[in-house]
Amino acid sequence: MDLLFHALVGAIIGELSPKNIEKRQLKGALGGISPDIANLITYPYLGIAIGNPIPYATPSDFYANPWIVDHWSYVPWEITHSLLFWGLVIMPLLYYFKISKLIGLGYFSHIILDLPSHTGIWSSVPLYPSNIMFEGWFDAWAWPLSDILFWSLFPFILWRILAYLRGIDTAFLRWPSEEKFARREA
Ligand SMILES: [Zn+2]
Fold first, then answer.
1. Residue 20 belongs to what domain range?
2. Near ion ligand 1, which residues have CB within 5 Å?
């Protein structure tokens, strides 16, 4: 998916998390966009390699240069989108440095959402370094801005509905850790 969609799904995960986690929506969103940090290598590299005036590549540049998937600059993307990397590197690091696991949950949602939204040679390799590809159904990574904004409306609306329900302390969305707080308020 695109960054905005990932951030919004992360915010939803944060919204649904226990309220005692500070800035939980932000942490969820941050985790949700984290795997695409690898794009900071891949996109500028391709942009420079093909001589774009701005050192950045567009989706059509990627389509015109399929060799990029076999280039070293594409490997960081495959690493950060691997469930093995998530489980064996990201989560242990979060535990070790006592960083909120919510970021790891947002990160996980990104890998899962990218499975259906990358097709053909652009497919995810969710068990990298194993090269088994997961064939997706559509190419959200190459969407124009209009599609990004349109499809992001859905997680945005869902997030705001959930934020409202959490705000009025709806019982079925309440965590056990929030029970005492709710009773004191009553
Ligand atoms: Zn991604």
1. 3-33+78-185
2. 35-36, 114
Q: What is the DSSP letter of 2?
A: -
CA R_g for the chain? 19
Whether 45 maps to a domain, the answer reads no
The count of structural domains within the chain is 1
Q: What's the CA gap between 164 and 158, in Å, rounded?
A: 10
In angstroms, rounded to a whole number, what is the distance separating the alpha carbons of residues 69 and 42? 10
Calculate how far, in angstroms, residue 26's C-alpha sits from the geometric centre of ligand 1.
18
The rounded Å distance from CA 39 to ligand 1 centre is 8
Contact by Cβ (8 Å): 124, 136:
yes
Both tokens of 137, joined, read: 């159904």
Are the CB atoms for 5 and 152 separated by under 8 Å? yes
The model's pLDDT over 86-97, given as tens digits with 9 standing for 90+, comes to: 999 999 999 999
| Predicted TM-score (pTM) of this structure | 0.92
177 assigned to some structural domain: yes
Let me know if residue 108 belongs to a domain. Answer: yes
Q: pLDDT tens for residues 13-53?
A: 999 999 999 999 999 999 999 999 999 999 999 999 999 99
Residue 161 lies in a domain: yes
